[in-house]
Each structure stands twice: as structure tokens, then as C-alpha cells.
Model the fold of this input.
Amino acid sequence: MDLDFKLCTITGLPRTGSTLLSAIFNQHESVHIESSSALSLILKNFYADIYEESTSTNVYLRSGNRLEKTVSSLVPAIINGFYKDVEKPVVIDKSRGWTIPIVSDNVVKHARQDIKFLVLVRPIEEIITSFAGLVEEEERTEEFYRSFFNANSPIMAPLTDILKMDRNQKENVLFKEYEDLISNPVSFVSEVSDFFELPDFNYSFDNLSSYKKENDEVHEENSPYKNLHTLRNGVYKRKNNFKIPSWVKEQSEQISFFFKDFASVDFGGGYNGTFC
Done:
């Protein structure tokens, strides 16, 4: 079974402009794109159950000599089923889950399509500043800032996966910096469009509020963040009226520079932490 459409993905670090970029590509007559998707996480759980040798699923599939043939037939069926209601020829799926190795290492082979992965990055300091701007001032405690450096935080969790994608140097992976999107959106979108192999289209960069808004109330149920995916009508930086603690700035810069030195990933920006 083949996919019913061309699949592209937007993934990477949080607060890197994925919602803004989605609103821009949402204008294209041949493209279907919506709010953050669960597809990659569904595939992650599927692969984990199939390939983990301790699971009953894996044992029975291996005993019946059906493991690979089952995966090869079910992965396209899962992707097609997820977007069964979509009739457009191109789907851009937005999710940080596409960097998870068990997904990115397998889905291209099983979907039998050269799926494109756009990986968005940004200096860690700027990401933390952007998150901090979404909470009340009294919530910006030392514990709040330290949580970003935990292994399972929304920043640290995808970093190792992104590094693995970069070191694999796959031709279907494109790394782009948030700063480039904000400073030159026309050039940025043109490059990504070519990478996704999209038909030419005259995009607007001003009227973006019509994009299908994500239901942030779901995310806010157990979170201090408000308006995680609110769009402004235009592409520009918004300056915060506060500064993050110096120790957060120093630790963030160390992480950003480490990835720049250890891999070819340049997080861009000036490491000033003032914009979101």
C-alpha cells in the first residue's frame, strides 16, 4: 500500500515559528495543514510495541514470521487512515514527534515515500524567554527556569533526537533557523517550498489569523502557559519587557554552542534572549 498523498513534516524545537509557518502554508490550494498532530506519536507507540522484543506483539509476530510484512502494510494504512478525510495532494504534518529516532528511522522505508522533514531550531535562551513570556511574572521562579534543563523538558527532550537526525545527514532533512523565518520570510518560505516540492504559490505574510487555531485550552488544563499558539497578523519579533536570570542565559548559551560545535546545527540568532 502507498500513501494517498505526498507527506511533508514540520518538526524541531518548540517556539521556533512552526505555527506561523503552518499559517503561511495553509494558504496553498494544494496543501492540507492543521494544528499540532498526533500522527507521529501514534507511529512511535506502534513501532515501540512492534519492535520491543519484550512485548507480546513482537513475540507473536516473530513466531509467525510476520513482523516486517505487518509493519510494511500497517504503517501506510495508519497514515492514510489518519488523513482519510483529506483530499488535497500534499499534507504537511506539524509535530515535534517526527524527530523521535524510532519514527524518523523507519517511517520513510515503510511509507515507501521520500518524506521531507523540516527541522526548526532556535537559540535555547530565546526559547526559554519565549516560554517565560507566556506565564505570569510570579510564576517565573528558579524552579520554573530549572525545569527547562530537565531531560524530559519540551526543550531538552528533542535536542538529542535532533542531533541524531543531523549526524545522519539525510537528504530529506532540512534544518532552518527561526531567525531566518522572522528576518526574511519570503526567502525562507521559498526555500522550504522548494524542499517540499510544492507548486508555486503567491503567499500572503500579513493576514494569518484565519489559520485553523489550535485548541490551547487542552494544553492549558495542566500547564501555566496561556495562548501557546496565538498568531499575530504579520511576521515580526515581539520584544519582552523582562530578562531571564543570568545563570539561565549562561547555561542556555552553553547548550546552544555545544550543539553548534558538536554537530552542524547552528541555532542562529544573536543569543540575546529578548524576542519571542
